[in-house]
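Structure first, sequence second, as always.
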C-alpha cells in the first residue's frame, strides 16, 4: 500500500482543542465485524458505556507512562532563540532532543534554557541518531545529545513546559497539566500522552474492577516521533523512531494466563499494543521501532481502545492493519459524518481485530 491510501479530509473544526469537562463524557464509537458481512456495524455511545462492552475475565492493558515537561525555550550565547523538545532522557544527566534554531547547532555549544534572568546552562555534546538496544542506528536524524550537568528530570520539572501536540493551538495551561496525563500515570519519560487512556477516570476504573475486568499496566515512553510525518509514498522506506518499553512480570503473568484461558486481551491505546506485539520478538524490556501496516499478523491483542488518528500517520496504518483497511476507512467516514472529535483531546473508538487476522 502507498502513503496516499491513508489520507482523508478532516474538517478543522473536528480537531479537539480542549478536553471535555469530564474524562469519561467523551463519545465512543463501537465498531463490530463478523465473518459473514464485509461491512462493519457502528454503535454511537459515550465512553462511560465501555462497561457494557467489556466482560468478566477480559484483560485490559494500560500504558502508565507519564509526560515530562519536555519543551524548553532558551537562547544561544549570541542571543539567538532556541526551542528544545526532549525526545527521551538517556541517563541521569543527558537527554536526546530536537533543537529549533536559526542555524545548525554545533557540538560543544552552550545553550541557556528556562528563565532568561536565571537560565540553566547545558552543553550540546553531539548530533546523534536514535539506536536500539543492539546499537543498530537509524538513518541520520536531527537529534542532539545534551548534557544538563545535573539531574535532567529534576531540571525539566523546574524549567520545562508540557509539550502539547502541534495541532493544539493554545499554550499549555493549568487544565492541561492535569488532563494531558492519565489518572494512572506513574513513570516519567514520555513526551506525548498515551491519549486513549485520557478517557478513564477513577470511578470508571473501579466499575471495571467490580465487573471482573482484570487491569494490568506496562510502560512505553512515547517519543516525539509519534508526530513525525511519513514522507515517502513507498511505506517500505519509512523508519520509525525507537521507543523504550517495559512489561513487568505481573503483567506478563496476566497476559500468559489470559492467552492460556482464551480470554480477550484488550489494549488501551496503540502504544500498549506496540509494546505487546514487540515483546513477542524482543522480550519484555527493550526499544521498539515496530512499524505496523496492513498485512501484519497480530499475535497477542484481540481488541483495541484508541482515539482517531491523523491522516497519513503511522497510527492510522496500525489501526488499518488491526481492523482492516476497508473497515477503518468506513469507520472514519462515520466519525466525520457524525461530528466526532478527533486526535489527542478527542473521542475514542473500540475496535475488534479483523476476523481474518
Amino acid at each position: 500500500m502507498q502513503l496516499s491510501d491513508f489520507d482523508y479530509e478532516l474538517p478543522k473544526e473536528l480537531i479537539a482543542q480542549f478536553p471535555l469537562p469530564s474524562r469519561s463524557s467523551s463519545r465512543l464509537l463501537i465498531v463490530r465485524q463478523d465473518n459473514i458481512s464485509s461491512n462493519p456495524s457502528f454503535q454511537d455511545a459515550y465512553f462511560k458505556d465501555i462497561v457494557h462492552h467489556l466482560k468478566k475475565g477480559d484483560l485490559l492493558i494500560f500504558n502508565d507512562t507519564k509526560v515530562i515537561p519536555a519543551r524548553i525555550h532558551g537562547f544561544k550565547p549570541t542571543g539567538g532563540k532556541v526551542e528544545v523538545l526532549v525526545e527521551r532522557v538517556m541517563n541521569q544527566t543527558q537527554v536526546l532532543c530536537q533543537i529549533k534554531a536559526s542555524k545548525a547547532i554545533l557540538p560543544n555549544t552552550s545553550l541557556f534554557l528556562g528563565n532568561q534572568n536565571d537560565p540553566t546552562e547545558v552543553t550540546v555534546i553531539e548530533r546523534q541518531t536514535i539506536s536500539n538496544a543492539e546499537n543498530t542506528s537509524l538513518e541520520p536524524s536531527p537529534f542532539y545529545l545534551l548534557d544538563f550537568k545535573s539531574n535532567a528530570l529534576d531540571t525539566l520539572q523546574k524549567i520545562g513546559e508540557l509539550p502539547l501536540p502541534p495541532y493544539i493551538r493554545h499554550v499549555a495551561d493549568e487544565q492541561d497539566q492535569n488532563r494531558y496525563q492519565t489518572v494512572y500515570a506513574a513513570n516519567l519519560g514520555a513526551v506525548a500522552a498515551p491519549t486513549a487512556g485520557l478517557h478513564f477516570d477513577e470511578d470508571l476504573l473501579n466499575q471495571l474492577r467490580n465487573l471482573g475486568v482484570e487491569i494490568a499496566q506496562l510502560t512505553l515512553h512515547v517519543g516525539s516521533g509519534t508526530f513525525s510525518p511519513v514522507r515517502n509514498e513507498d511505506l517500505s522506506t519509512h523508519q520509525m523512531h525507537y521507543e523504550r518499553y517495559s512489561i513487568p512480570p505481573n503483567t506478563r503473568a496476566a497476559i500468559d494466563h489470559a492467552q492460556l484461558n482464551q480470554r480477550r486481551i484488550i489494549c488501551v491505546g496503540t502504544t500498549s499494543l506496540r509494546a505487546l506485539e514487540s515483546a513477542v520478538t524482543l522480550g519484555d524490556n527493550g526499544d521498539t521501532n515496530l512499524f505496523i501496516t496492513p498485512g501484519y499478523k497480530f499475535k497477542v491483542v484481540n481488541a483495541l481502545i484508541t482515539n482517531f488518528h491523523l491522516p497519513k500517520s503511522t497510527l492510522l496504518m496500525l489501526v488499518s492493519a488491526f481492523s482492516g483497511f476497508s473497515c477503518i476507512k468506513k469507520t472514519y467516514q462515520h466519525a466525520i459524518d457524525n461530528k466526532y472529535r478527533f486526535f489527542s483531546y478527542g473521542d475514542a473508538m473500540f475496535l475488534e481485530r479483523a476476523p481474518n487476522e
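Margin note: Residues 100 and 198 are 29 Å apart (CA to CA).
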